[in-house]
Amino acid sequence: DAEIRSREANDLKSKLQAFIKSENVQKFQSEIAKFKEERAKRVVDYSKSFSKRLAEDEKELRSSVSIASKIINDITGYSSVLRLKDNITQKEKNLRDLRRAIKESKAASVAANENRMNSQQQMNELLERKHTWSSSDLEKFTGLYRSDHELEKQVQESAAKLKALESKEDETHAELIQGIMDRYHEEQVWSDKIRQISTWGTFCIMCINLLVVLIVQFFFEPLKRAKLVNSFELKVKDLF
């Protein structure tokens, strides 16, 4: 009996292995694996598309909020304050650039003056020993004399440029101060306007609440009382 049972168990095991290795089972397993793979791919694609849609919605929401903010600023008059603020920022940048240019121009003017002073010093030294000049000294003096005119021109041009930049700096600084004052004035006007809007808004809300109370007291309450009286009268008639 034990041998028969062992033989039957081995036959069942071999049949089960043959069934698992059969072509239909292999195809079924392949289809299951393919289905799982496609399902996972669809989940990933859906996640990507959802993330993409979420990013697009967020971008559209930010754009809408920005547009709404600009509209509110136009209505309240804060846009003019922002324009003045941008103008002040630009003036500050221009003033910084001018001061940087003035610093560079001063350095160039100092260098031009030093070059001319050195040239004149060399010319004076040569003139002091004019009676002992050699041919090279004569050539050197001639070159210095010719370059002196160019150096003088550079000194004059650098001085004129520095003066123009300093004048422009004064104008820009005055415009910056005026812009700050204009911005302060516009902010005060905007603040007063907001307070007025808030006051009138509160007053309108109070009027609406009062109107609602009056409507309830003089319209709905009489109707309610009349309805209750009619209902009571009908019940009394039904009793008697």
What does this structure look like?
With 240 residues, the protein is an all-alpha fold. It has two domains: 1-76; 80-206, Helix Hairpins (Orthogonal Bundle). It is 95% helix and 0% strand. The chain contains four helices and no strands. The chain has helices spanning 2-20, 23-76, 78-128, 135-239. Helix 3 (78-128) packs antiparallel against helix 4. It starts with a helix and ends with a helix. The model has no long low-confidence stretch (mean pLDDT 77). Homooligomer.
List key phrases describing it.
240 residues; mainly alpha; Helix Hairpins; 2 domains; 4 helices; flat; Sensitive to high expression protein 9, mitochondrial
Question: How is this structure best summarized?
Answer:
The protein is mainly alpha-helical. The chain contains four helices and no strands.
Structural class: mainly alpha
Largest sheet: none
Summarize the helix and strand pattern as letters. Answer: HHHH
Oligomer: single chain
**Count of DSSP helices?**
4
Overall average pLDDT: 77
CATH class type of the largest domain: Mainly Alpha
CATH topology of the largest domain: Helix Hairpins
The number of E-state strands comes to 0
Q: What Rg do the Cα atoms give?
A: 48 Å
Classify the beta-strand content into a percent band: under 5%
Q: Unreliable segments (pLDDT under 50, ≥5 consecutive)?
A: none
Principal-axis shape? flat
The name of the CATH architecture of the largest domain is: Orthogonal Bundle
Helix content class: over 70%
* Structural domain count: 2
Q: How far is the N terminus from the C terminus? A: 100 Å
Subunit structure: Homooligomer.
Membrane topology: Multi-pass membrane protein
InterPro entries: MDM33_fungi (IPR008839)
Main location: mitochondrion
